[in-house]
Specification:
Layout (H helix, E strand, L loop, with lengths): L1 E5 L7 H10 L11 E7 L7 H13 L3 E2 L5 E3 L16 H21 L4
Parallel strand pairs: 1-2, 2-3, 2-4
Amino acid sequence: MIFVTPEYNFSIPGGLKNAIDWVSRLPNQPFAGKPIALQSASPGPLGGGRVQYDLRRAMVFLDAFVLNKPEIFIGSCASKIDEKTGDIKDETTRNFIKQQLVAFATFIARLAPKG
């Protein structure tokens, strides 16, 4: 699972936090043992670092496996995302995301059951 989220009030947006909380109450906790990647964006310079910190803490409690690196923090996102199409127009940002996706595929393969 890949979480792509903005940062709201220095933390996880309420709707996302509520969804994680409700899903985590299901029998056979669905996040346990699952690979997770995080991406965040913010109009500020930190790019959502605090939301990722809080999501990591929640995923640790839920026994998920979070990819550590590379991390994706898109700071000053308004200048990097086309407001009409939603496409990322900044080549450096697109390359960081591609690197993370390659690393995430490797991470998933490493976590997959053998045999």
